[in-house]
Each structure stands twice: as structure tokens, then as C-alpha cells.
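Researcher: Here's my situation. A collaborator sent me these components and asked whether they could plausibly form a single complex. I don't have experimental data yet, so a predicted model of the whole assembly would be a useful starting point for our discussion.
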Amino acid sequence: MYNSGDKPEKGTYQCANCGHKIELKSDSEELPKCPVCGNSKFKKAE
Ligand SMILES: [Zn+2]
């Protein structure tokens, strides 16, 4: 599980609450809060 503010690595992450997907385009980009539901927990999208 990843949290808002983490800098995991570039790739696609999926909100653990609503399933909204966020793409990080570089390794230095932080995961934001989910823009749809405000959740801060994400998992890596397959
Ligand atoms: Zn969400």
C-alpha cells in the first residue's frame, strides 16, 4: 500500500477506496490525494 506524499516510482496507482487511477510520470513525483474521493491510500495498478 502507498500513501499520499510517497514517491514510489513512476507508474500507475489505483485508489484503494474508489479505484480511480493516477499516473506518475517520474520517480520524483508525489502521490496526491485521490481527486475523486479524497482518500490517501493507493495500490499499484497492474
Ligand atoms: Zn478515490
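Model: Some features of this prediction you could bring to your collaborator: Residues 1-46 form one domain. The CA atoms of residues 11 and 24 lie 5 Å apart.
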